[in-house]
Amino acid sequence: MRFLSAVQIEQLAGIESRVLEDAVVDKLVAGAAVQDIELSYEDALARARPQSAEQA
Predict the structure, then answer these.
(1) Residue 1: what pLDDT?
(2) What percent of the residues of the chain are helix, what percent strand, and what percent coil, each to the nearest 5?
(3) Is 4 helix (H, G, I), strand (E, B) or coil?
(4) Residue 43 DSSP SS3
(5) How far apart are CA 53 and CA 47, in angstroms?
(6) Structural domain boundaries of the chain?
């Protein structure tokens, strides 16, 4: 029987984490509703800004 080293365990954990992240993104994208709208650059930035930043 062969045991994994600490480095190998860390590498596997990193791979597992990336695979899980990809699965979450795929699930979110599959359920996303996309809507095309025309905005000026300034309006797009204003919409992306958090509400609290506008009030400050």
Answers:
(1) 77
(2) 70, 0, 30
(3) coil
(4) helix
(5) 11
(6) 6-49
Euclidean distance between CA atoms 18 and 12, whole angstroms? 10
pLDDT digits (tens, 9 = 90+) for 17-33: 999 999 999 999 999 99
49-53 long-range Cβ contacts below 8 angstroms, 24+ apart: none
Task: List the structure tokens of 50.
Answer: 């958090």
The residue to which tokens 């300034």 are assigned: 42
**DSSP assignment string, 31-47:** T---------HHHHHHH
Give the mean pLDDT of 22-48: 93
Q: Are residues 47 and 39 in contact, defined by beta-carbon separation less than 8 angstroms?
A: yes
CB 30 within 8 A of CB 23: no
